[in-house]
Amino acid sequence: MFDWRVDQNQPELYPNRPILDAAPAARGYDPVCSRRYGELFNAGAGLPPGEPPRGFMFLPAIAHPRVFSLLNVRLVLSYLDPAQGALPETARIDFPEGPLRFFENADAAGPAFLARPAPLAPAEIEDPLLGLGRLLGPQFDWRAEALVERPHPRADAPADSAIEPALEIAESGYGRWRFRAACAEPSVLVLSQSWYPGWRVWIDGEEGEAVAADWALVGAFLDPGRHDVEFRYRPRALERGARASLAALALWLLLSGAAWIGATKNHR
């Protein structure tokens, strides 16, 4: 992939560069790399949890394709074969550096999915080797369950067998997703975006609590029933900064107006 505006000398698409073309990026919307996301990405690349996540720029390997499925990565572009045959090659573009190869991940989770909450044990929360080991282990069905740090607040709510679980995208945009969800049992809606505290969620018009799910993704607890769920990436620090800027602008206009009135009176 090539962006002629900024990538004149290389074909790679660097981190967050897709945002210029309104394309989704696995990195997410925040320029700051969270520790949890770095640990998740490192696990997918076969790197130790504490190592700087160099995979943001270059992916050395795909040791656990499940990580990239959770992040809804559908295409991997590489000069090599980072998955060692685990992902089929579907296309290639020839460059002087060599062929840029396209590998398709047909197991991608999609923008979001519904799952049963699976609470992490305290030791698993504290130790990424344990927590990620459970997430990536062969016994964990990541399509049916999602790891969370605490139980569903209404885990004992009775199931509704009359409801067929379903999830539909109602609207999407930059930093904003709205879904129509149907849950037969207490569930967690997992959004395949990297978790930051700036994520907020509204459930049936009322603001709820966005939680971390599957170690570094965004989630929201849902009760049995049908719901309208909206996720927005709105960091509160940005809102506070905007309010402070507006207050400063109002003060500047007030002082400027007072100075202008004073100067006009003196001129007369």
List keywords for this structure.
268 residues; alpha+beta; 2 domains; five-stranded mixed sheet; 5 helices; 13 strands; 24% helix; 29% strand; disordered N terminus
Short description:
With 268 residues, this protein is of the alpha+beta class.
What this model shows, in words?
Strands 5-4-8-12-11 form a 5-stranded mixed beta sheet, with no helix packed on it. A 5-stranded antiparallel beta sheet has the order 6-7-13-9-10, with no helix packed on it. It is globular and about 80 Å long. The protein is α+β, with helices and mostly antiparallel strands. The termini are far apart. It contains 5 helices and 13 strands. A hairpin with a 2-residue loop joins strand 9 (199-203) and strand 10. Residues 1-9 have low confidence and may be disordered. It folds into 2 domains: 17-104, no CATH class; 112-236, no CATH class. The protein has helices at 35-45, 65-70, 122-126, 128-136, 236-267, and strands spanning 75-78, 89-95, 98-104, 112-119, 145-148, 166-173, 176-183, 187-194, 199-203, 206-207, 211-213, 217-222, 225-233. Helix content is 24%, strand content 29%.
